[in-house]
Amino acid sequence: MMTMRRQPQLLVKLRSLNRRSRDLLSLLPETLIGSMCTIHLLIFYRQILGDVLLKDRTSMQSADLISNPVLATFPKLLEQPDMMDALRSSWAEKESTLKRSEKRDKEFLKAMFLLVYHDCVVPLLHSTLLPPFRWAEEETEAARWKVIADFLKQNQENGGALQALLSPDGVHEPFDISEQTYDLLGEIRKNVA
């Protein structure tokens, strides 16, 4: 509790990391501000980005648009903590069903992550039922949580998002090519400016 005489304080707690956390963090940039519980999702994004930029392009000099909804939408997702929580819980649910040998296979994990992302995040990001994200607005947050929870429950019952996507009740925004493409030069221009 603050009194009038005391100045506000920022407390930072430091602790040493275990080996698993150090291994995860070694795959990310040196400076990163965010929640520790979403680190593994950021790692998947960076691995997919690396694969697309290094393996899937026709040449390294190519500046064409890259057709990849994960690369196009993940940065928007980072700005919406409730959507990140939805992705995290969906991924945790999927990961709990995997066998130990499947969890060791990095390529299989990436493929499963892509499936979860397409089932969970992509339909929600383009749903007209989901109100736009506004920081610290309780009514909006509650409405978003309700839509997200209903969608995740429906996905779980139907075994994926296909039923929700084809349902006449689900209304989505019109298709826009920017939802599916990653503009490498646009990202570079944004970072330089």
Provide keyphrases for this structure.
single chain; 193 residues; mainly alpha; two-stranded antiparallel sheet; 9 helices; 2 strands; 2% strand; globular
Task: Please describe what this structure looks like.
The protein contains nine helices and two strands, in the order ααβααααααβα. With about 190 residues, it is mainly α. A two-stranded antiparallel ribbon has the order 1-2. The longest helix is centred in the C-terminal third of the chain and has 21 residues. It starts with 18 loop residues before the first helix and ends with a helix. The mean pLDDT is about 85.
Question: What is the element layout, followed by pairings?
Answer:
Blueprint: H1 19-25, H2 39-56, E1 66-67, H3 69-78, H4 81-96, H5 100-104, H6 106-125, H7 138-158, H8 162-166, E2 181-182, H9 184-192
Antiparallel strand pairs: 1-2
Series of H and E elements = HHEHHHHHHEH
Q: Please indicate the percent range of residues in DSSP E strands (runs of 2 or more).
A: under 5%
Shape: globular
Number of helices: 9
Major sheet size, sense and barrel closure:
2 strands, antiparallel
How much helical structure, as a percent, in the residues? 55-70%
Distance between the termini: 42 Å
Structural class: mainly alpha
E-strand count: 2
In angstroms, what is the radius of gyration? 19 Å
Mean pLDDT: 85
**Sheet with most strands: strand arrangement:** 1-2
Low-confidence stretches: none
Characterize this entry briefly.
The protein is mainly α and 193 residues long. It is 58% helix and 2% strand.
